[in-house]
Structures are given as structure tokens and as C-alpha cells.
Design brief:
heterodimer; A: mainly alpha; Helix Hairpins; B: mainly alpha; two-stranded antiparallel sheet; 20 helices
Chain lengths: 117, 491
Amino acid sequence: MEVHGHFNYWIVVVLMMIGFYALIARGNLIKKIVGLNIFQASVFLLFISFGKVSGGSAPIIAEGIQAYSNPLPHVLILTAIVVGVATTALGLALVVRINEAYGTIEENEIAQMDSET
Amino acid sequence: MISQIPALQVVIPLIGAPLCIILRRGALPWLVALLVSWVALAMAATLLSQVADGTVISYAIGGWLAPLGIEYRVDVLNALMVLLVAGTSSIVLPFAYKSVAKEIPEDRHYLFYSGFLLMLTGLLGMAITGDAFNVFVFIEISSLSSYAMIAMGRDRRALSAAFTYLVMGTVGATFFLIGVGLIYAVTGTLNMADLAERLPPIHESRTVLAAFAFISVGILLKLALFPLHLWLPNAYTYAPSVVTAFLAATATKVALYLLLRFGYTVFGADFVFNIVPSSEVLLALALAGVVVASTVAIFQNDVKRLLAYSSVAQVGYIVLGISYANVTGLTASIVHIFNHAATKGALFLVMGCIAYAAGACRLESFAGLGKRMPLTMAAFVIGGLSLIGVPLTAGFVSKWYLVLGALEKGWWPVAVVILASSLLAAVYVWRVVEIAYFRDPPTDGPVLSDPPLALLAPTWILTGACVYFGIETSLSVGFSEQAARFLMGGS
């Protein structure tokens, strides 16, 4: 098992699991959003790692450079980052409104208040 | 002009959304949304007439040719989906005017219609695009706007429902993105037609297997297959009536379309059914979903919630047809996508009518509605019969083909489960009907009556569709069978 060469992918997996765990195990809605963010960030890193060509330079045409890294995953991830920002913004806006309506942002307290009414 | 329709189909609703925000006064945003939606419907009908003979339209966005550029690819299957989405929104929007006026504060109306058009854009885009990454972008456009729309519900529980949906929906979309990234890493392309050619030689590769797992789990979360349905009941229950009707009829259906598209076109039936045991997994989950969700529906006290659980069960039927892996099963699934969209659309519009008159959809508030709101409840009864699958309704046609497909496979226990679960549907529909028709209305409450024509007409158009497609099947079954054969690789 080659560990060093797959360094990026190990980081991706570790980040993904941290984010996913926070998303599932944390009851605080803000922490869930943070978990979601880490989860998404790991996918961004995954895509960008795909684009790296060994020995490749930045994809800007210049003299004396033969190999370029693939710029397409970077472009895709720019779009995905925008989507991620929009999701975070909407999620936080919902948390603000939940806090106004329930007076708490703890999942179990909200569930309890919902079951009472 | 005609050749630009595939792009305009998505671009026009997209432009309509900010237009609603600019023209924020009075009924203008509603008019914009209605016009845009009707134009989209006309375009969808034109597209379907162009591809009805089996031709495939390929459109290169911005003139960048596939596989490098983004390609919009229209065949019979997604022309049908586009028609379904545009058609539903065209019927639901006339209903929206009065319903939204009652359910949403006036200073937010323009935001509502703007969000509605974004939802429409996203769903149309998901259906029409031929690029795997573009699908992700449109999934997020439709999902983000639907989270915001659900949060507009009157009950505060709409907020927590929207939050749960946001978390689960984003996880689903991100899983999908991981899968797309993995197939991009092994093939170097994102174009679906191109992927279909490059994937078969490397079907045994572990990366492709992982990609398939991520993509299918992501899509199954979006289409709410049991046990990934947890976001659905609350979201449908607390969203504004119009949003529920539109989402129930289209959002899960477009996700089902994606499942078919990725399963059959991108990965190929051979991979999905022979290399990966999809058939067994889908069969088990679909049957569990049908039985469990129908049973849970029986015990609900909020009729909107009851119908939401029934939606989970109906998604189970559609997935069941896919799991047969034969043309009859696939035809049944595609037919049921349409018939269930008409049925659930009609039933949730009935809920909108009742919410308009009574303010809530709790079971006890249905007492005596059979006499007080005869036209509304008649629509509920017809929709309910279609949900059960009684002959002469649309639901019967889909169940007929489902049972036929099961028998063709020799899976007679599956046919028994389908029939038994219809009885469960009969029980939950009957509970509502019994209270509405055989219980006296409360003497102290306000006297309710049928809502205005603006609400009844759209409801009855969809109810009429339930009956029409139950009697005249050449249109729905004909196109579905054509689409099924197209997917299975025949002509």
C-alpha cells in the first residue's frame, strides 16, 4: 500500500469522515453546517487532486513547458464552491430563523418542542 | 428559433426568476411566472413532437461541441420528463395565485414566484442536460430553491423540515458529485453519451464500482427511496400547498429519471444488472418501502402527512418496476412516474383547497367535508381511487403493468405484495373518506364551502388527467413503452 503517493487522497478520506461524523453526531445545527462544509471541502480537494499531472506546470501556456496540469477539475470546483457557499448561506439563514421561532438551535430540543405541539 | 429550443427551455425560466424580483408589485410576479411556465410547456410539447419518431436532438451550449462543451441531449424519455415538469407547473401556477395569497405574507410573494421559477429551471435542466457535472449544478439549483420554498410554510416546523432536507439533500448531491468525479478520473469525460462508450471496457474497475455506488446512493436520497426518505414527510407536510403539489409531482420524478439515465445510458444495463446486484437491492428496498410506508400512512392524523408517506410507497412501486430489468417493468415505472405525478398532484391540490377553506389538513377537520365541499372531496375520492389502483383510473394502468412484469419474471410473490399493498392504500384513503362523508360536521365551527374556481379548476384538470390516463392509455403507455425500449437498447 503506497501511502506517500496517495497523500492527497488520505487527507480527502479523513476530512470526509470528520465532516460526515460531525454532520451525523452533532446536535447543534451550526455544527452540522460546519460538518457539511468540511464534507464538501474534502470533495473539492478530491477533484483538484485528480487534475494534477506529475511534473505538470500550471495550465498557462509558456515557452519551455511540456506538461500542464488539467485545468478542468479546477473550473468544476469553482462552480461547486459557489454551490457550497450558497448552501452554507441558506443553511445559516434557516438556523437564524429556527432560533427565532424555537429559541434554540439544539436538534433534540427542537424535536421535543415539535412533538409537544 | 426552433433549433434553439433545448437551451431556451432552461434559459427562459432562469431569466424569469430575477424578472419576478424586479417587477415585485402586485400580481406582476405571478403573471411572469405563469407566462414563463406556459411558454416552457409549449416548448416542451414542440420538443416531444420532434423526438417522438425516435430522433435524438443534440444541442451544443454556446457552440462548444461535445464532448468538451456542455451538450443538451433530448430523446423520448427526457422530452417526456420536460413535458411533465412544465405541464405540472403550468397547472399549479393558476392555483398558486389565490393559495399563495392566503398562505404567504404579501411582502414575500415576489420571492415565492422567483423561487418557484428557479425550482422549475433546476428541474428542467436536470431533465434536459447531457452532461454529468451539469446535472449536479441543476440538482443544486432546484434543491436550494426548494429548501427556501419549504421554509416559507406557515408552521414553524417548516423551518426544521427545510433544514433536515437541506442537510440530507446536500449530502445526496455531494455523493453524486463524488461519483461524477470518480468516473471523470477514469474516463476523462463528463459527457453522458461519451461516458456510455468509455465505461464498458473498464466495468470491472474498482473506481467505476465506487462511482456507481456514490451516484446511485446520491440519487436514491434525492428520490426518497425507503429508507432514505426521512426528509420527505415533514418537508411535504409543512411546505406551502402549492410547493408540496409541485414538488410531489416533479422533484422525486426527475430524480427517478436521473436514476434511469445513469443506470441505463451512462453505466449500461449490463453493468447495472449483471456486474452489480442492483436488481436484488432495489427489489428489497422497493418492497420494504411499499409495505412500511403504506402501513405508516395508515396511522397519520394529518392528511398531508398521510399523502407524503403514500408518496414514499409510490416511489417504491416505481423503483420496483426498474428492479425487474425487463421492458414491461421499465414501461410500468415510466407510466407510473406520470400517473403518480397526476394523482399526487391532484391530491395535494385538494389539500391546498382544504387548507384554503379550513386552514389545516388535520384528519378531524375533514368531518362533514363531503357535504360542505362536495366538489373538492369528489376530486379527493377520484385521486384516492387512482392511488389504490382501481380500474378506470391511472393508478390501475401502472399497477397492471407492474403485476404483468412481475409475472413475466415469474416473481409471483412480488405480484401478491403489490396487490396486498393496494389494500393498505385502500385503508388509508378510506379513513379520510369515512370521516369526510359519514361524520357530521362540527356544529360550532365556521361553515365551510368549496373554494373559488381558480383553485377548483386546476385541481379538476389533474383529477381529470387521472381518469383520462386510466381509460385512454395509448398516449401514456405508448410513449413510455417507446422510452423503455429506447433505454433497453432496442429501437
